[in-house]
Amino acid sequence: MLWGVWRWPFLFVTVFVLLIGQAKTCQAKEVSVELVWKFGQAGWVEIQVERGSYQLILDKKTLDFPQGSTLQVGWGGWSPVWRINSDDYQAFKGTDLEIKETGGGNLRVKMPKGDDALYRGDMFLDWQKDHWRLVNRLDSEDYLKGVVPIEMSNGWAKLGLEGLKAQAVAARTYLIKHTQNGETITDSPDIDQAYAGVKVEGEASAAVEATRGMILVDAQSKQPIEALYSSHSGGYTEDAKNVWGNSDIHNVSHPDKFSDGVGGAADHWRFMVSAPLLGSTFGLGPVKKIGLDKFPSGRVQSVLLEDGFGNSLKIPGRKFVQAFYPFGKSIQANDFLGSLFAVRSAAVNQAAFEPMQLTSFLRMFATQRRSSVEDAGPQLAKIASSSLGVRAEPQPYGVFIFEGRGWGHGVGMSQWGAYHMAQIGYNYQEILNFYYTHVLIQNVTG
Q1: Which pTM does this prediction carry?
Q2: Whole-number mean pLDDT of the chain?
Q3: Range of the domain at 70
């Protein structure tokens, strides 16, 4: 969400767990999810009834829409158009349309470029001047079955089911917190939490069922908390105030031993960038010096860049990370993944600088470019950045190496830490109690 160890005693006197049959908080039985992750700004969409039966409500008419039926909506240049199955296209006269489930089924949504997904429940579409807006309406527990496995992984169920249960509770809490007044949330991990529909459902569904109705509430008010989480804390969770500016007693910074040594690239990463590229990214000349202002957790609050011409610029830590973050790509150990990092410089003539690691780095990009390592030149001076690889011409200004830990904002629950806690025997209540403070776990069904 949001921006996919060893056992020790719990010394928490301000954290309580209460499992009760009912609570005053109302749970959203149905949720509306705007599909922006894959289908935002969609000019043309095809929706097919994969199974089950539906009704199509279109231009003030209600039509049967049985299994195998297809609706295509698009843009005729001046106005929106639609057609059913292989019929002729017709101009769209209304403002919205709905495909409403009448007997349990699934809808397949396709885009011209090949993106497709499968969804339970109803589909609501409305025309937004130059694109179609899609909203999936479905049962909240079915929604969570499309959230938990993509926020974590179905593969974690065998050894870390309790971690998936903790994720299910956190995701359910987030859902209720953000839909208490009938609001629509999105399927985007950059805005709300990731939701990918039926295709990702699997072993993680057991965690949703096992925690049905369970959410985190404030210990005093009994209202849903802001249950934040990220992939990997880097060994130290962050205070919500240091990320979003607002204090939150449920999401405070503390050491996280359970995220140490797990998570692969998310646990330790290294990013290299040349002084000229670093400077030009922020409108400066080749960078000569970097200063870091840090929070107690070790995360960077701001970065001070100074170039060789006497210019300087102070950049917020998160903005600095976003300039190099690998948006939309699978992460690698040479990516810039978060604001928990240190930095050092290396002169371009530093030929002995970690030769094995440097050679491996150059070999990777040489292979990608179908050239030899010799053609690329095993010189630090030719590195542009970890994401862009090497360039033919060397530069004399040096390279900066960022050594970091963690993936994401680090507030709330660390997903890798939760998985590790589950592996070594903690249950989901203990996992949630470790990552959130001043909370109760309550059942809001009924």
Answers
A1: 0.86
A2: 87
A3: 42-130
